[in-house]
Specification:
The protein is of the alpha/beta class. The protein contains 17 helices and 12 strands. The longest helix is centred in the last third of the chain and has 23 residues. It binds glutamic acid.
């Protein structure tokens, strides 16, 4: 296969699907060499098949807001690939959601899930519904209306959604409440990220951030470094940023910045447990404003409007917000200010130019599909607990999560070690994920 030829075909077929084309290009560039050593992949046209979702459901979601006005949004579920297990992946509620965004996320999810060592296929879904400024009652009515359509596409052995940007345990609760009514089925395994008293796994809320820090620890260890005393800049203040800030602080690092769409909060002495707890309140308020942290803790945090977390000098950058949030310009500024490591926690958080700059300027870099896989891995652990009607302790879940992140790091090293001994984590993660899915597709024939 030739990446350029496949990309030209996809560009003609899916013009304007920017994020999807970007995600496919990154994976194909990494795997081309290995793929071409396997004529059996070429014969079964694995690449042509793996870049296309199995199916996409699109539906209208109509609901009534607090003023009594009728609102209409669009809902989607992209079932991308089921070669290694049932479809699995989150739901994103954000005003910018498009089919391209969900296709990129479903594609990434397929390889990420393969890396977790658990049997899960890839999927993603969501809506262009904007949760910012919505009341709790509006969120509930929207979730119920969304599930009216979604319930027919999902099931505990078929497709298991979870949270993502704009969807946390509150939304999962409303979605599950409606699913039960419609399906008359009481299997909690149909969604993950549930409340801990009704089937949710302990540590699932923390898992993406905790897993990211465990991965970072392994990466630093391999490079002969440690997290202790290091200054960390984090973008975002949602669920993922919260988990990352919690674990980074526990492991002895200092989180000196968090950010939002309105600007950045500089926290020179490092974030405190009270401030970390306040991040949860900020997320629950649906105001999407990080400035509130500086208003609440005026002697600890200084807010600068319009600036990103990447403007604050740090050792390690952890993008935890949204795709393409870190540009090449940001990468240059980070390096200039002393940053030497970037672990991408958001899905495709770094633009291709930023990744290229990091990799060619001595900045350690690891991609989201490896770094953030602890979230979906713990969803997989939640599914296991649901299927066997048991509940594991925090210690059990944490040690399994730790083991999974170690194994993901090992897979990256195995497939990404370069002739000079350094590790290309982008290549490593893409090749490891791809080989597993491709092999399964091959063994299951032309379907
Ligand atoms: N949305 C998360 C991700 O990007 C979690 C998905 C899940 O738990 O199914 O991996």
């Amino acid at each position: 296969m030739k990446t350029n030829e496949i990309m030209s075909r996809l560009q003609v077929k899916y013009p304007g699907e920017k994020e999807y084309l970007q995600a496919v290009q990154e994976v194909l560039e990494s795997i081309e060499e290995v793929y071409n050593r396997h004529p059996e992949f070429e014969a079964a046209k694995i690449v042509e098949r793996i870049v296309e979702p199995d199916r996409i459901f699109t539906f209208r979601v109509t609901w009534i807001d607090d003023r009594g006005e009728v609102q209409t949004n669009t809902g989607y579920r992209v079932q991308f690939n089921s070669a290694i297990g049932p479809y699995k992946g989150g739901l994103r509620f954000h005003r910018a959601v498009t089919p391209s965004m969900l296709k990129f996320l479903g594609f990434e999810q397929t390889f990420k899930n393969a890396l977790t060592t658990l049997p899960m296929g890839g999927a993603k879904g969501g809506s262009d519904f904007n949760p910012v400024g919505k009341s709790d009652a509006e969120i509930m009515r929207f979730c119920q209306a969304f599930m009216w359509e979604l319930w027919q596409c999902i099931g505990p052995d078929q497709d298991i959604p979870a949270g993502d940007v704009g969807v946390g345990s509150r939304e999962i609760g409303y979605l599950y409440g409606m699913y039960k009514k419609l399906a008359r089925e009481y299997n909690t395994g149909v969604l993950t990220g549930k409340g801990s008293t009704w089937g949710g796994s302990i540590l699932r809320p923390e898992a993406t951030g905790f897993g990211a820090l465990y991965f970072t620890q392994h990466l630093l260890d391999k490079a002969g470094k440690t997290l202790v005393g290091k200054k960390i800049a984090i973008s975002g203040f949602g669920n993922v940023a919260w988990g990352a800030a919690t674990k980074a602080t526990q492991l002895g690092a200092k989180v000196i910045a968090i950010s939002g769409p309105d600007g950045v909060c500089h926290i020179p002495d490092g974030i405190t447990p009270e401030m970390i707890a306040y991040m949860l309140e900020m997320r629950a308020s649906n105001s999407d404003r990080v400035a509130d942290m500086a208003t609440r803790f005026p002697d600890k945090a200084q807010f600068t409007p319009g600036k990103k977390a990447w403007s604050i000098p740090c050792d390690i950058a952890l993008p935890c917000a949204f795709q393409n949030e870190l540009s090449e310009e940001d990468a240059v500024e980070l390096k200039k200010n002393g940053c030497w490591c970037c672990c991408e926690v958001s899905n495709m958080g770094c633009q291709p130019g930023a990744i290229h700059y990091f990799q060619h300027n001595g900045v350690l870099f690891a991609p989201g599909k490896a770094v953030n896989a602890g979230g979906v891995a713990t969803s997989g652990l939640e599914m296991t607990q649901n299927a066997s009607h048991i509940s594991w302790s925090a210690e059990e879940v944490d040690s399994k999560l730790h083991y999974i992140m170690k194994s993901i790091h090992e897979q990256c090293v195995r497939f990404g070690t370069q002739p000079d001994g350094t590790v290309d984590y982008v290549k490593g993660a893409n090749i490891a994920g791809f080989m597993k899915v491709a092999q399964a597709m091959l063994e299951q024939g032309i379907v």
